[in-house]
Amino acid sequence: MQAAVQYILAGLAIGGIYALVALGFHIMWSAARAVNFAHGDTLMLGAVLAIMGLDAGLPLWLACTLSLVASCLFGVLLERFAIRPFATHAMSIGWMLTTMAVGIMLEALVTMRFGGFSRPLPSPGIERSISVLGAGVYPQELLIPLAAILSVIGLGILRKRTLIGRAMQAVAFDRRAAALMGINVNGVVAFSFALAATLGGAAGILVAPVTQASASMGLILGLKGFAVAIIGGITSAPGVLIAGLGFGVVEKFVEGYISTAAREIVGFGLTILVLLVFPQGLLGKREIFKV
Amino acid sequence: MTARSTVLGFILLAALLVAVPLTAHNEYELRLFMLFLVYAIIALGLNVLVGLAGLISLGQAGLFALGAYSGAVLATRFGFGLVAGSIAGIAITTVFGVLLAYPTVRVRGVYLAVITIAFGLIVENAAIEWQGLTGGPMGITNIPKPHLLGMRLSGFAYFAVLAVVLFATAVGTHNMKNSRYGRAMLAVAQSETAARSLGINATAVRTLAFAISAATAGLAGALYSFLNSYISPDVFTFSDSIRFLLMVIFGGAGTTTGPLLGALLLTYLPEYLQQLQYWQAFAYGFLLAAVMFVLPQGVFGTAVELVRRLRPGARTIDGARAVELAQALRSQSHSRTDLGADHRAHAGAELLAETLTVRFGGLIALDEVSMQVRPGEIHALIGPNGSGKSTLVNTITGFYQPAHGRVALDGTDLTRASPHEIARHGLARTFQNTELFGDLTVIENVMVGYDQRFRYGLFDAAIRTPRFRRGEQVCGEVAASLLGFLGLLKYAHEKARFLPFGLQRRLEVARALASGPRLLLLDEPAAGLTAKEIEELDGMIRRIASLGVSVLLIEHHIELIMAIADRVTVLDYGEVIASDVPDRIQQDARVIEAYFGAPVTAKA
Amino acid sequence: MRAPPGDMLLEVRGLQIRYGAATAVRGVDLEVRRGELVAIIGNNGAGKTSILRGISGLVRPSAGEVSFKGILTERLPAHRKVGLGLVMIPEGRLIFADQTVEDNLILGAYCRWRSARGEVANDFDRVFALFPRLKERLHQGAGTLSGGEQQMLAIARGLLSNPDLLIIDELSLGLAPKIVEQLMALLHDLNAKGLTILLVEQLASHALAIANRAYVVSNGQIQMQGTAGELAQSPEIMETFLGKKHRRIM
Questions:
Q1: pLDDT, tens only, C83-136
Q2: Around Cβ B599, how many Cβ atoms within 10 Å?
Q3: Which terminus of chain C faces fewer neighbouring Cβ atoms within 10 Å, N or C?
Q4: Exposed, middle or buried: residue B432 (CB in 10 Å: 0-12, 13-18, 19+)?
Q5: What is the chain B residue with the closest CA to A36?
Q6: Strand duo A135-137 + A130-132: pairing
């Protein structure tokens, strides 16, 4: 029983990260029908640069702020130069390969600078573990799913109550109509990607104390985050939240009772299954393509 | 590529394959080249999927692994030899290849790529997990040396086997590329809609591409396990899948030399970067970025393009040949170049649409629409914007399903048929927004139109049997004669997308006629044409009708319709409001109101 | 009676629009003066909508000049033109069906919230006075409105952008005849109160009933132009729609 609670709590923690990554994909996809396939690297940058900042003697808050700025910039630049020129029509996937290429190069460069091993980011959230229903857990781990839930709520408020949020929804719905309202579509898209990247950087900072930061953490987190977005429905924010948390919990159970390799098999197997049966995801909208 | 340069290329390849073992300094160098041979087989197969069918796969390492483990397990546990192990490897991976093709029916673009990534990761992890079968992370270590016909294959002998297999794969895939199969794959990649409307089963074509890429990966895998005597999961990672894709696209997707070049480069590059471990990873990213941003056609593809620009070769069909073909066309006795010989007995097909109703959600797009195109007539379909013309066209051609009602061609019910089935029953169409195969040449576009009339199979194509040669020759003649009929002979070897607009429209018609239809549906053929071009269109439609093809014409240009239509059907708000000869339509009060609006007193 | 037209608001010279290899608009000249209601009519596929796309900036013209309030705008992206006062209501209305009526209206005034908040509030009141039904359905999803109501929403949204020139593309598409008449009368009213309107319309008789002047487009070029009265009387106009040898009905 205690093991089950442990798995659930740990699962919610990693699931929260998946949800945050998937939320980033949701925001990008809504804006541009294309995503930064190196989005996982925004987490890596957030975590790794924060640690490097601490190494350089900066206070924690400053190191984190600077790493968030770097993640944000990464997302914006990638959108402008690696995605926009390659997302010319609905079925093009050039952007997938270009962003993947940049991600691979970035990872290699960071590995050379940061080293190939992982290091933790110190945080008050992991100083002492607390007990929940008999299972030991760090407050930081509970913070992560909370952050994911708050992010989804925040995004909803942004979209329904603010002008820029409404503009984002308009751009997602129909770019031409949005332009005719006077909305600078490219500007809104850039903003969306900045938001997604910052969210990614924050997720990296949140998870680094728990699972440690390394130059290669971005790839697999990005892949799984995208899988979660597919399962939940990349057009639905609540969908990716639920899918993310669920995916994390399922992962922990499979990993605990069988093995790490089995965890990957189940996770990716589920992704393929959902794509075949519900191509739009569990809570997503069907996207119609005209002949 | 001309026939001469192709033969030269293959001679060079053969020469290279013979020269290397003679000049290798040690066992290590030989083994490295043998590794290249294995990778080249994968690359050639992946090229069919990526370069021809236009589908990105990032899971090729998974298929490679399946082949390798199949060979290894069967050899170590059941004593299978090289040949049996290879065949088993091919069979197992081909099954998975076909399975991977299934998703293309439901998802496209990035989702399909994600499925291949997921597949690759599943295989890699299954290899780690299923210890009992695969030896887990340690892998399988005691794969016996390969034997062939009782003879043990040492270094040079196994090299010979690999070299022969590679050469055969290169020849086979190259021949397939230059056959109806290669053209069909390119067509489906460039315009699936047009390909389907010409009778090509897009799903079958994609499945074939996946199957070929899987089979080659499986074969390479089995050969690899016998080469290495040891396999483990860390040879088949996502990074390797990226590497295989890079071999194809950096070398030059769609060509035969490209993947070979890419495989060569990416086999030797890691060797040189062994010390600079992290730079190796960087290099993959850099090469991928280089292809995407700078060299989309790869190294070899770009080189070919440059040569083509510098030496504009024959773009037309030889003058004497053109005269020959035009004469053959006019002569009634030469049945092979007849434009659709099958239907000379009849006077075109009859198309019947009965009470068709189509709904999109709550919106009724077509309301009990009935229409008849009589055999051999030129029938026009007109109506204001939003009246349902496109919906009716797409329902007749099988892209939409009606809620109820019936479509029949010469009595055959086609209501539930798919677009490619309808095309095979003799209905061809052109499109409002020209759907040409832009990167194929003008004559290749028309040859794709002929696809449903071929009689040869994949094996014939792979080894170029006499049946294949005959089929291709007839196809070429029909295509050339159609180009002559429509005045496009001088552009025969030009890429379709470089054609001026009016000629692009004509090419679409030529392509549709190549399928030998009994009814031709022209969707706004006059759109965007100048007045002179519309006059030429008038003549062209009449000539087509005189060949015995019924014509259904969707148009806005009233003058054109009045001049050539035998009868006109008018749609408005999804209903038929009139169906009669042009003169009477012109004066029908309901038609006037639909187009012009009811008379309104001026407020100004 | 209408006031005489004022200064030149929109001047288009030699407009050419291409989609890939196809030329949809081949050298069109037209002008709209302040206070006018100008119509562009013609058969389908003639290029009317393409002309508007070129003027509004949704498509970059391959040649020609589009001069608005004296400023050359053919290279400007669509969203910048809204700020200048050039507002278009597109074909098919394109309202944001996944947001509420209120959201749509708020987005209509997107450019003005920071600079003219007070005026926007007044404009909201005026729009509600014109279209009381929109006020009733303010918090409903815009996708649940009927076709006619959606067109009203599109017009209201356009008005909230504070246009100097309001361009409307195919108002009548998909709408019942009665609603079309109501909306045409509304446009006529708005024009009488001073709003300059450029209208592309499939149903020529409606357009000519309310317009000052009209252009008849065929095959990407201007075939005829003149006052609405002249055109309504001319025998040639029927021919561009229904071909020669037609008996005049009007």
A1: 999 999 998 889 999 999 999 999 999 999 888 888 899 999 999 999 999 999
A2: 12
A3: N
A4: middle
A5: B110
A6: antiparallel
CATH number at residue A105: 1.10.3470
φ and ψ at residue B202, rounded to 5 degrees: -60, -40
Relative to beta strand B567-572, strand B378-382 is parallel
CA A46 to CA A74: how far, in whole Å?
11
Provide the CATH topology of domain B3-309. Answer: ABC transporter involved in vitamin B12 uptake, BtuC (1.10.3470)
Query: For B564-592, b where at least 16 C-beta lie within 10 A, e where not — what string?
Result: bbbbbbbbbbbebbbbeebeebbebeebb
The two three-digit tokens of residue B387, written as one number: 């009246």
Nearest CB to C21: which of B501, B558, B602?
A: B501
Parent domain of A107? 2-277
Residue with tokens 């080189």: B303
Given B524, B561, B604, which is nearest C45 (Cβ)? B524
- The Cα–Cα gap between A144 and A13 comes to 6
How confident is the model over B204-263, as pLDDT tens digits? Answer: 999 999 999 999 999 999 999 998 888 889 889 999 999 999 999 999 999 999 999 999
Among the four given CATH numbers 3.30.930.10, 3.30.230.10, 2.30.30.40, 3.40.50.300, the one describing domain B351-596: 3.40.50.300
Return d(Cα A273, Cα B115) in angstroms, integer: 9
Is B596–C24 a contact, with Cβ atoms under 8 angstroms apart?
Answer: no
Instruction: Determine the structural domain holding residue C40 and report its residue range.
Output: 34-57+78-242
Residues of C in contact with A173 (CB under 8 A): 96-99
Instruction: Calculate what percentage of chain A has a pLDDT beyond 90.
Output: 68
How far CA B284 is from CA of A83, A108, B287, in Å, comes to 19, 10, 5
Closest CA to C26 of C53, C56, C47, C44: C47
**Does residue A157 lie in a domain region?**
yes
State how many domains chain A has. 1
Q: Pseudo-torsion of CA B289, B279, B256, B305, nearest 10°?
A: 40
Question: What's the rounded Cα separation, in Å, for the pair B48 and B212?
Answer: 7
Secondary structure tally for chain C: helices H, strands E:
10, 10
Which residues numbered 35-64 in B keep a CB inside 8 Å of some CB on A?
Answer: 56
Cβ distance B195 to B428 under 8 Å?
no
Residue (of C184, C113, C186, C104) closest to C139 by Cα position = C104
Give the residue on C whose Cα is nearest the Cα of B364. C174
Angle at B235 between CA B234 and CA B239, to 5 degrees: 85
Domain assignment present for A272: yes
Residue with tokens 């006062």: C85
At B359, the amino acid letter reads R
Please name the residues in contact with C77: beta carbons below 8 A apart, sequence gap of 6 or more: A179, A184, C57
CB contact under 8 A, C78 and A180: yes
Which positions 151-210 of A are in contact with C (Cβ < 8 Å)? 160, 163, 166-167, 169-170, 173-174, 176-185
By CB atoms closer than 10 A (0-12, 13-18, 19+), residue B246 is buried
| Torsions phi, psi for B106 (to 5 deg) | -105, -35
> Where are the extended beta strands (E) located within A25-75?
none
Are B573 and C172 spatial neighbours (Cβ–Cβ below 8 Å)? Answer: no
Whether residue B282 lies within 8 A of chain A, CB to CB, comes out as: yes
Task: Give the ipTM of the model, two decimals please.
Answer: 0.93
- How many of the other CB atoms lie within 10 Å of CB of B22? 7
Number of domains in chain C: 1
Which CATH number do you get for residue C44?
3.40.50.300
State the pTM of this model: 0.90
3-class SS letters over B460-490? HHHHCCHHHHHHHHHHHHHHHHHHHHCCCHH
Cβ separation B288–A101 shorter than 8 A:
yes
